[in-house]
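seq:
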Amino acid sequence: MLKSYINDNNNASFKPYNADNIFIVSKDNKDKLSLQKGKLIIIDRAELILDEQMVEIINADRGDNRYLIFLRKPMGIELSPNYFGTLCKKDGELQLEYECYVRGWA
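struct:
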């Protein structure tokens, strides 16, 4: 759905949502990751897309961007343990439950 908003964003007559601040990483545009500033960067199936150089770019980012990274195995991305969560369904709603809270981590 986000991809369609981003693609439609190029059409001036139809702008359901301004998606200029979103960058969805794919195999086709992963070389542009280091050029992003002030974006929400979404990486789905990161274990298939990310390489060592991209992990270094993400780890070196000091707050210029925000990331949503979906992966099925660890990739060496330096995150607080407090950022790991599980998507679960409770009372008919999808909720994000954080796996732990470690004092001292942001």
